[in-house]
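Dear U.,

For the methods section draft, I wanted the exact inputs and outputs in one place so we can describe them consistently. I've listed the two proteins in the order they'll appear in the manuscript figures. Please don't edit the token lines directly; just add comments below if something needs changing.

First protein:
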Amino acid sequence: MMGLKQKIKDRLKQLSESHAWIGKVWNKMPHKYLKRLDYYIMAKFLGTYIFAIALIISIAVVFDFNEKMDRFMQHEAPWSAIIFDYYQNFVPYFANLFSPLFVFIAVIYFTAKMAENSEIIAMFSTGMSFKRMLRPYMVSAAIISVATFFLGAYIIPRGSVTRINFEDKYYKQRKENTARNIQMEVDTNVVAYIERYEDRRKTGYRFSLDKFEGKQLVSHMTARTIVYDTTRANRWTAREYMIRELGGEREIIKRGNRIDTIIQLSPEDIILMQNQQEMMTNPELSAYIERQKARGLSNTKEFEIEYHKRIAMSFASFILTLIGASLSSRKMKGGMGLNLGIGLGLSFSYILFQTVSSTFAINGSMPPVLAVWIPNILYAFIAFFLYRRAPK
């Protein structure tokens, strides 16, 4: 009995210590810096943001289905595939793509509404500064930023595989079936060449494989055809082949009708699908870019732009939130119409500028990371200017 009482006392002591520790952590939590007014603004912000996404994406789905319905019926796409393979992945993809626009619209709308109802004037009359008023805005922007980054970097690419494969099958073929004059470094000092490749048959014609030691050629293999084994990674079957081993003054020649070989090359490295970068997660994009650069290929700009754009777009939430709050926090005689017009113009110009700079990077010599971040840098200056002019 005494032992049981002692155990109960020890347990109560542990609970009290645990409670004290939880209390200390609780006191350090961000909620201590957020008041009821902050939660009110955050609810307005996030609620308006979600409502704007739901409204605009609903309209986009209707227009998209109306445009593509004939193709879907022509290719006999099943309704289950249309709903679950296509539109179930269509909605998060476009919602995340236009997230900066939705953030801007949400901030402009509910802030202008608060200014029109004199709520912001009431806040300032209590001694609250404009900088303090921005705290819930930035917290909300951080929530949206983190959510859009993880969606765009890890979750949406998986759904894009299903969506793009659906479009390739039932709407419009995106993938090329042939490629010519492919030359790439498949391993250290190993260069492969295929004159023509057919993806339907997974077959390459007039194949050669050269191995070097330094600048000296030590092995040269040729084959009439080379066929990829879809059951095993990097397995190829060469037919009507010849291998020349070059060692000093001696040369050894081997011929045969068929030989299985391992080559660090896959059909995905040869045939690229349109918008293939959208189907890769951030780790996959990074690995692909490094592998293609190591092989001496220069077709990585679209992949680099996609990689850096996912990071830059998450930071855009903070910039556009600051612009929207600075623009619409002043009460105006004409109502919120002017603020909404300016906000929409700035948000559309941001998206347009980002598209134009990305095009320059793909077709010109501009570094992809610079092309992606230029809109953020420019609009950060605009945000700072508007912040300085906002009512204090």
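Second protein (the one for the lower panel):
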Amino acid sequence: MRIGGLAAAILLGLATLGQAAPLNPEVVAGDAKWVAHLDVDAMRSSIVVQKAYQHFVEKSPIGKAAVTMLDVSPALIGMDPRKDLHAVTIYGSQIGKHKGVLIVFAEADRKLLTEMVKKAHGYESSTYGSYELHSWIHEDDEDERPVTGAFYKDKVMVFSGSEAEVKVALDVMDGKKPGLTCKVLAAEAPAGTTVLARVVGIAEAETPCESKLAKEIESVGVVTGENEGQSFLHVKVVAKSAEVAKQMGRVAEGVRALGVLHAIDHPKDKQLVEGMKVNVADKTVTVDGSAPAEAVWEHMRWEHMRIQIAIKQHEKKKCERSKK
């Protein structure tokens, strides 16, 4: 669900210590083809996230404004993301479709949110077993779309564009319907994982944009996070044939080679490149990266500064042209 101007504020809210909330396969429907999980609690203990928070707040007017919004967020969205938001899980049974289920784990003001949603355009309520379903029309600058939401428990909220999918999600969490059993999607993630994204059945999926490469890939998994001061990235791709996997491995090695060349002029990035390993085994390609979190942050900070300089130079040239 979108929350407009509070997006930046929520990102800022990820810098307070908390306990990790990893992906729970039991809350994901058994027919899911893709799943993504954001462990907000784990992000709060991340060196990179904490450094980004400090940098953003101290050096950005937008950051300071976002902090102000965070201070009033309990009255606006029923929670303070800095301490109340724990995790977000998204999954769906179709690839390439604007469909799916969003589960939010947070210490939210249930009464306030219920009163707020009742004022939404097209609001309707219904019941499903012991649950109250809230349906409304979400409006933005581009379009309108239906949304249905429900509290599973006081600390768990379920949303979807389909009322039927919300009902299935509630049944899954109640144990009335099977949860996730696919080994690829439900595989345990490393300690400290902050972001997880996995998808299966890519080759067989029907999507609006047909891709020859996609038709050669069975599954993709990406996991990133931080543990004991080390940032990590794990990518796993399973192709339909060993030959395709071999070619993809060569592409990955090419990217690593470019990183080595870049590190010649930027020695601080050497640790990032040295920590990247590519492996090809039959139909599987894995890319594993590991580097000190401080080094990762320095790279991000430098890239941010470089982008800011480029933007200022562009604006300066644009202003000069307008004066001619």
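Candidate sentences for the figure legend, describing the second protein: The radius of gyration is 22 Å. The chain is about 40% helix and 30% strand.

Thanks,
Y.
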